[in-house]
Amino acid sequence: MNALTYSSAFITFFSVVGPPKVLLAFGELAHLHGTAQLRSIAGIASGAAVFVGLIAGLTASWLLDLFHISTPALQLAGGIIFFLYAVGLVLGMHLGSERPQQDAPDLISGVRELLMPYIVSPLAMTAVLIEAAERDSWTWRSTVVGAYVTVLVLDLVCVLVLANVLRRTHHATIELLGRLLGLLLAAVGVDLVLDGLTDLGVPGADRAGAH
Questions:
Q1: Does the pLDDT value for residue 161 go beyond 80?
Q2: Nearest CA to 129 among 116, 147, 141, 115?
Q3: Beta-carbon neighbour count of residue 73 at 10 Å?
Q4: Neighbours of 34 (CB within 10 A)
Q5: Which of 49, 95, 173, 192 could form a disulfide with 79 if both were Cys (CB 3.0 to 4.6 A apart)?
């Protein structure tokens, strides 16, 4: 998580909120919403994600100081929440979301479905806060926010281009890919917890020392 360049920050955000994860979330919605409405949902969700990312990234140091939160504590909290969400994916449960009614899917219900995995992804927000707090510089914080926004724009482009493909993808395929992704994301959550424990000096938590 200790990104020092725009490219490394971009890779960090791509791994936690990039197209592979977002397309699966939109794939679930594609079977309930028309193509035009799906694209509207994508636009609104992306705009909200950019807004939240800007606020979190540009005020990261101030927020951590205001709530007296240390970086290790943030890593532990984000890792645990993300791990629970990922386990939900593996088990076929959708934690933190509310299934829209099958008979009347609407714009608001679609955006609500994306709150946990996309707009306020625990690991994404944790990554933004930790990366932005690495240096006490507006230039660096702007670089982190820029990398995050770039990934969100890439997500939006992928959704807009593949909207029709998502609608034709069988639900079982999406469910299978979602469970596989959940397994991988659970491992990322564990790594984040280990990073927090290592920063706290807990013996045996250092992943490098385990090899």
A1: yes
A2: 141
A3: 15
A4: 12
A5: 192
